[in-house]
Design brief:
Elements: H1 4-41, H2 47-104, E1 108-110, E2 116-118, H3 120-127
Antiparallel strand pairs: 1-2
């Protein structure tokens, strides 16, 4: 549930950016083709006006490139966030497994209110030195 909300927001953001870009490109295509047809048909259109149209086209193309980079950056951020979420979920699963093992072995007891109790028999096992006077060196 926690992953779906950020994913939905990211998808919505990407859709809006892409939709806006396509809308601007569509406007650009209609405006440019009409402007070029009018310029060709009318001998009174000055070179300055044609240059202005070309400048507008180039500005739209620059904006489109900027939007594409923003989309790519947002996609990279989403991928990174999803990787972090996956890692956190793996760690959480490891903690849950550890707690379950501690409970099943009787070392700890967890009450319904969340209170954790370390059982006395397990405390004395932790406090006593090993019988042979050496630590288990193979498990480090």
């Amino acid at each position: 549930m926690k992953k779906t909300i950020p994913a939905f927001i990211a998808a919505l953001l990407i859709t809006l950016v892409l939709g806006g870009g396509m809308f601007l490109m569509g406007q650009d295509a209609l405006g440019t083709s009409t402007a070029k047809a009018d310029a060709a048909a009318s001998a009174q259109v000055s070179n300055v006006t044609a240059a202005q149209y070309e400048q507008v086209v180039s500005q739209y193309q620059a904006r489109e490139a900027q939007y594409q980079e923003m989309i790519a950056q947002a996609s990279r951020q989403i991928t990174t966030a999803n990787q972090q979420i996956d890692l956190a979920n793996q760690q959480l699963q490891q903690y849950q497994t550890l707690i379950q093992q501690l409970q099943s072995s009787g070392l700890v007891t967890i009450a319904s209110d969340g209170t954790v109790t370390i059982n006395q028999s397990s405390q004395s096992a932790f406090m006593q030195p090993p019988a042979n006077g050496r630590h288990n060196e193979g498990n480090h």
